Amino acid sequence: MSAIDFHSTIANHGSLYDRGGADSYYRRPMRPHYYPEGSYNGEAVTDLTDEEIAVYMQGYFDNERSGDFKDWE
User: Fold this and answer.
1) Residue 64 C-beta-side C-alpha neighbours within 13 Å
2) What is the pTM of this model?
3) d(CA 47, CA 64)
4) What is the tens place of the pLDDT at every residue in 22-65?
5) DSSP labels, 28-69
6) How confident is the model at residue 10 (pLDDT cuts 50, 70, 90)?
7) Is 36 domain-assigned?
């Protein structure tokens, strides 16, 4: 991925930002990845640039700050 369009990464299920937020929401450890064909469609991409990792981390930390976590009860 070159020159990330941050706004489009937020809107897409399976995107870097989406996966970061989902990992935080479900209290999973950080594992930067994304699904180019949508969440859980195809194989997860894990060979990422520093810029891509930053987008994933932004999604993760935005959710951490919001305090929106899965209630397992």
Assistant:
1) 14
2) 0.85
3) 24
4) 999 999 999 999 999 999 999 999 999 999 999 999 999 999 99
5) PPP---B-TTSTTSSPPB----HHHHHHHHHHHHHHHHHT--
6) low
7) yes
Classify each residue of 14-40 as buried b or exposed e, where b means 16 or more C-beta atoms within 10 Å of its C-beta: bbbbbbbbbbbbeeeeeebbbbeeeee
> Who contacts 40 (Cβ-Cβ below 8 Å, separation ≥6)?
14
* Integer CA distances (angstroms), 37 to 40, 46, 58, in order: 8, 14, 21
**Is residue 20 one of the residues assigned to a domain?**
yes
**Residue 23: which domain range?**
6-66
> For residues 65 and 40, is the Cβ–Cβ distance under 8 A?
no
